[in-house]
Amino acid sequence: MAKHYKGEVVYNQEDDIHIATLTVAQTLAFALSTKTPGPNGRLPGVSRKEFDQEVLDTLLRMLNISHTSKTLVGDEFVRGVSGGERKRVSIAEMMATRARVQCWDNSTRGLDASTALDFAKSLRVMTDVLGQTTFVTLYQAGEGIYDLFDKVLVLDEGRQVFFGPPTEARAYFENLGYKPLPRQSTADYLTGCTDPNERQFAPSRSVHEVPSTPSALENAFRSSPQAQANENSLKQYKQLMETEKTDQEAFRAAVAADKKKGVSKKSPYTLGFTGQVRALTVRQFQTRIQDKFQLYTSYSLSIVLALVIGSGFYNQPLTSAGAFTRGSVIFAALLTTCLDAFGEMPMQMLGRPILRKQTSYSMYRPSAIALANTLSDLPFSASRVFLFNLIIYFLSGLHSSAGGFFTFHLFNYIAYLSMQGFFRTFGLICSNFDSAFRLAVFFIPNFVQYAGYIIPVDSMKRWLFWIYYINPVSYAWQGCMENEFMRIALTCDGNSVIPRNGFGLTQYPDVLGPNQVCTLMGASNGSNIIPGRAYLLATYNIDSADLWRRNFLVLVGFLLAFQITQILALEFYPQYGHNLSINIFAKETDEVKKRNAVLKERKLQRSQELEKGANHDKEIVKQEKAAVQAHQRTFTWENLNYHVPGPNGQIRLLHDVFGYVKPGTLTALMGASGAGKTTCLDVLAQRKNIGVVSGDVLVDGRPLDSDFARGTAYAEQMDVHEGTATVREAMRFSAYLRQPASVSQEDKDAYVEEMIELLELQDLSEALVFSLNVEARKRLTIGVELASKPELLLFLDEPTSGLDAQSAWNLVRFLRKLADQGQAILCTIHQPSSLLFESFDRLLLLERGGETVYFGDIGEDSHVIRDYFARHGALCPSNVNPAEYMLEAIGAGVSPRVGDRDWKDVWLDSEECRQAKEEIVAIKERGLAKPVTKGASSNTCIFWVVVLPAIVMSQIEPLFIFNRRVFIRESSSRIYSPYVFAMSQLIGEIPYSIVCGIVYWVLMVYPIGFGQGAAGLNGTGFQLLIIIFMLLFGVSLGQLVAALSPSVQVAVLFNPFLGLFLSQFCGVTIPYPTLIKFYRSWVYPLDPYTRTLAAMVSTELHGLFITCKPDEFNIFNPPSGQTCADWGSAFVDKFGGYIENLNDTIACRYCQYRVGEQFYEPLNIKYSLRWRDAFILFSFFVFNLICTIIASRLLRYAKR
């Protein structure tokens, strides 16, 4: 089944996972494009396009989300459809698979009662009409939903305690001795029978007589008539399948008919591989083209960086002075495009949840996404790299010919695609960001170091030179160098002639003579013309004949190889397939062990108390009441309107909403999915940061002050937490920072323990948050907010969604207790049972468009609201849940509304509306009469130091951005300020930076033999200080970039730009004397890398005597009859360096440097200024920190 019919058994998980930047229609259109049946599976004359459009429209209408078709799906931080609408997109996506066996995991979570019932009815219709098999797990199912099912399965700790017709289930458990409660739905009753805290026994029955443990219930069921009937039915079905093959053959024929032409009958996919790649390419292209910010940023950075690099190397001369810098500009251009591909690695990890879900639906083979990513990116990357190469090539003065440019572009772009494939492969095979970045940090420096530019291949250590031959960057660089230098010849510049005149010397010829030599590698004695080919061969041992016959072919081979590695990684090493289903616990400390022991003891004691009595009061109140202070301030809102920008102008989401929340009351906010419940809650909680809000939101008749958010708590619908914290740590963190300082830590800890017990998280108190399931995360979200003990108002967005009936009842019961002690509470709620519903004091009911339908009391047994609707023609039957009926009455679902008038108009004309407005006026008058009160509130090795920031930044940015998600939630409640967040992020990295700096320093100083100059070993200690400063600069720069960026995808775009820009103008790739005046006057002194290199180079080379190797000497012949000393001593005295064989009369060997100062002083470096340079570098670190703090304060990128 799993091999040939994988796509016929699908599972819809509880979480809604989608590409946030696609619209609803695009999301569903992609699902349909991979599951559209072939010609044999469609009606004659119906094209594929017509079929897809008809099914898409049907799904949108059936789930009542036609109005959202052009709206982004969105997520926690991308504004899109509502949570309930997003759940319906998940439902529609799975329906589009047309699978024969469908498993729905709590798929009504987040849907209002009416929509949930409509969804269940649609499943019933699909099951009946299409002959599907449907499995559904449900929490808090209403009676209408429960009655639609053919069978019900009840589990208790993994044991089957009932399976049979829904109509027999209640009677079965009643016969066992369990007592039903009034107005309790059958679904709630069945789950309650398995919960020791909820179940009650029939009169004269006790725990000793009734099967109550999972094993006892299982044994009771096995001996029941229902179990026997089930076994008989199963046997009969197996016998039927063994003898009757018609259904099986029909199933196989139907699956085969669905497949497109050319798709194997054994394949589990409807679409062939090429069709899958085509559909995925369209989707990936849409994703990229709609992410405007990322698109504009990438193109802008490429163009700006091209202009910066090109202008830095502007119009290189065809002389010996332009030989090294031509290699530099080619290497800089190549490195920029290759490092630009580094941003692909995090993208592969961010898309894993979607890949996992859709491949489990058999929409496409995992490997198809690898080819689709490459193809969809070609239009963007090809145009971007072309613009980059065009600007750099002609601005820097490389050989002006079409053949030269297009060859350069071809090699550069193929290198980009090769490195893109390389980084994508690592993103696919690594399990997390940390391991991927660690591998990248290992490979990237080696790619750069062993490209052949920094260290020519002949100078590489023999045991490491093989890296050069497996490095795609080296082949691209060789090809670009060969392409350039095979087309040019260089003239020897006067400054490259030895010996020469200058500084008063006049004894040497002004034109290169037979007794002089050009210092440029590849030059011939007495000749001032150096062919480019000879320069390449002598300097880098590169043969121009290898351009097409080796370098191009090998580069294309790397491109294909990395495409294949992606396919293999996705097919045979699927990291995307890991779905954590276990809890991971932190090691307990002594204090935690004691607290956990107390929690377990109290849990055991409570269960024993429950066992002693047959019945227990549902309203058990703890002896230690929660210390919630009674507050008298009232929260009101009037004429609340909210508009957001849309593609066709402003969209109104709320319209003239009004209401109030008094201290000591529990107010529910209800409505259909998409009616604006969460939007209203966000607006009232001051969480919206886009759109226009109008109207009055007041506390005691006064405008909200700056402490409003701190005096409130908001349990959001999205469960965003720090994944590496434990449950107890997360709740304590909230309590420590949000409860008043006057409350002792012991009291805060004790309150957290109460919250853990209340939310039944005793067994998960030390579980790491990232390992929690959906239900436990929801409990934690509520617990984190409850731990703050808000003094003014508690907001909760769908707190019971995802919880079972008993958990939901416990939570609402606790909220009721908080309200009774003076807390004001406002919460949205979906699908409440009648018992839950009447626990609320007041209801604000909205219909689509953010229109108010009702605001007022609910009353005991919901009599107040039932009377209101009955007076206006909507009489609620006695056996129907009022919370469900009123939504159906106002037309929240697919069914038409009750009555001929819009219920918002009925409300505006009602007496209840007038009384509510009068009450708001009275509340404001009473509030304004009160006094205002507020609460208190080697040179190559040294050069590699400048590469450290680029490496560090790539690791810091994702961590900072992920932590910012948690910060956005926590800062919205004023737990801590953005200044604290930014500084704590940096402080947490400082110890690791110091350790890394020491490790790098040890590996740099001792193997290479630093400290040979006048500064000695004391100088190496200074080098350590510079390395630590440099790492701190890298950390702070990475955090600054992350603070300025909306996402990881955008942040990584800045890394190549900053790395190349800073390294280009620090005096290495372009030596200081050859920098054009524009950059030398201001960029060079402002570049922090300038200070790093100046401090480290001067410290190491100061007073260091230099001895040239044999191949480093420049050789010239003196005139006949003169020795080397006679001919060259005057030159050496003026220009420095030394002649090794002073007494020889031929082949004088001249070394350019004698001491280190002769190397670095012409580069504008001074040993006496090294401490100044060190603290200028440190000041850049401080500057980055300040900017990060400001950016964290002003930029949060949470569009709500």
How much strand? 5-15%
DSSP, total strands: 22
Distance N terminus to C terminus? 44 Å
Sketch the major β-sheet: 6 strands, mixed
- Please tell me what the overall shape is: elongated
- Count helical runs: 43
Instruction: Bin the helical content.
Output: 40-55%
Average pLDDT, all residues: 83
What Rg do the Cα atoms give? 37 Å
Nutshell version of this structure?
This protein is of the alpha/beta class.
3D structure, described in words:
The chain has 1200 residues and is α/β, with parallel strands linked by helices. Helix content is 52%, strand content 9%. It is built from 43 helices and 22 strands. The strands form seven sheets. It has a six-stranded mixed beta sheet with strand order 15-16-17-12-18-19, with helices on both faces. α20 runs antiparallel to α22. The two termini are 44 Å apart. About 2% of the residues have low confidence.
Task: Furnish the topology, listing elements before pairings.
Blueprint: E1 9-12, H1 24-35, H2 48-62, H3 83-95, E2 101-105, H4 113-130, E3 133-137, H5 143-146, E4 152-156, E5 159-164, H6 166-176, H7 186-192, H8 214-222, H9 225-243, H10 246-258, H11 273-290, H12 292-312, H13 323-340, H14 344-350, H15 352-360, H16 368-395, H17 402-429, H18 433-449, H19 466-469, H20 472-485, E6 489-491, E7 497-498, E8 517-518, E9 529-531, H21 532-540, H22 546-572, H23 590-612, E10 635-646, E11 649-661, E12 666-671, H24 677-684, E13 692-699, E14 702-703, E15 712-715, H25 727-738, H26 745-758, H27 774-786, E16 793-797, H28 805-820, E17 824-828, H29 834-837, E18 842-847, E19 851-857, H30 863-871, H31 882-889, H32 903-908, H33 911-928, H34 939-943, H35 948-972, H36 978-1008, H37 1016-1044, H38 1048-1064, H39 1077-1086, H40 1088-1101, E20 1114-1116, H41 1124-1135, E21 1138-1139, E22 1148-1151, H42 1157-1160, H43 1170-1194
Parallel strand pairs: 1-2, 2-3, 12-17, 12-18, 15-16, 16-17
Antiparallel strand pairs: 4-5, 6-9, 7-8, 10-11, 10-13, 13-14, 18-19, 20-22, 21-22
